[in-house]
Amino acid sequence: MRLILRPIARLMIANNLPLSRFVELAKRALIEEALAQQQSATNSYVSLKTGVHRKDVKRLREMDDWDSDPSSVATPIASILTCWTQDPAFCQTQGQARPLRRRRDGENAGFEDLVRRAKVDVPAATILQELVDQKLVRTNEDEQILLISDTYIPTMGAAVLEAFQATVTDHVSVAVDNAISDDPADKAFDRVLRYSHLSQASVEELDAASRAAALDYLNKLNSLAHDLQTRDAESEPQETGRFVTGVYIVPKHPQPVPSQKEKQI
């Protein structure tokens, strides 16, 4: 499971999603799947099957936005920005962040005090570097940290995440169904081709050939699917069938092999 979760972890880090958000989403996913298998299940039964605390099961089942992703879990950066612009110790007026030195200067609170006040369990230096990387702060000639923007926008857009979800969800679902099904007749078509110990030239040739074949495959099926959908649109009642197919290609180029001299070093 760790290897399966690694790409998800990479996506979370790239999109500034904290562990707390992942845990909340994982709880909801477990509850949703348990209810999909037994819709009338009690909270106690769902808790028993999933390991999610019964109070959390009750809370999540009663949420109005059950079908949408929760967005109320603040990231450390968001907590810092809120505290900086709203707490009188760190702002000149509400909404107007005060310039801060790295450490406390007499009676004037510093950036490290801000991190502690926001109850963020991350080193101040790490938080500051993230703010700099996101172009939310800068340092002036007096070595004061100035807040440039109090709006924290994740680096990956919602449209990109939606496309990612639409692409990955069906494939992961098929892979899981195939893994837990005992009946070969219930297994969906899911095949993969793997080759290793290839040269750079061989990887590039296979990459080009597979892309051409994949485009031809998808273009032909797209044309057929469009014609069939147009025909089925005339049916009454409206048809509800769904078809998904796709291709992924992973060219892993060979890594440089260290020389015997480099190995000895």
What does this structure look like?
The chain is mainly alpha-helical and 265 residues long. The chain has 3 domains: 2-61, no CATH class; 76-147, Arc Repressor Mutant, subunit A (Orthogonal Bundle); 158-232, no CATH class. It is 52% helix and 4% strand. Strands 1-2 form a two-stranded antiparallel sheet. It has a two-stranded antiparallel ribbon with strand order 3-4. The longest helix has 33 residues, at 200-232. The two termini are 36 Å apart. Mean pLDDT is 85; it is low at 70-74. This is DUF6502 family protein.
What is the total number of structural domains?
A: 3
What is the strand tally? Answer: 4
Strands across the major sheet, in which order?
Answer: 1-2
Question: Which regions are unreliable across 5 or more consecutive residues at pLDDT < 50?
Answer: 70-74
The value of Rg in angstroms is 26 Å
How much β-strand is present in the residues?
Answer: under 5%
- Please give the count of helices: 10
Largest sheet: 2 strands, antiparallel
What topology emerges from the helices and strands here?
Layout: H1 2-14, H2 19-37, H3 43-50, H4 54-61, H5 76-86, E1 91-93, E2 96-97, H6 111-117, H7 124-133, E3 137-139, E4 145-147, H8 158-180, H9 200-232, H10 260-264
Antiparallel strand pairs: 1-2, 3-4
Helix pairs in contact: 2-3, 3-4, 6-7
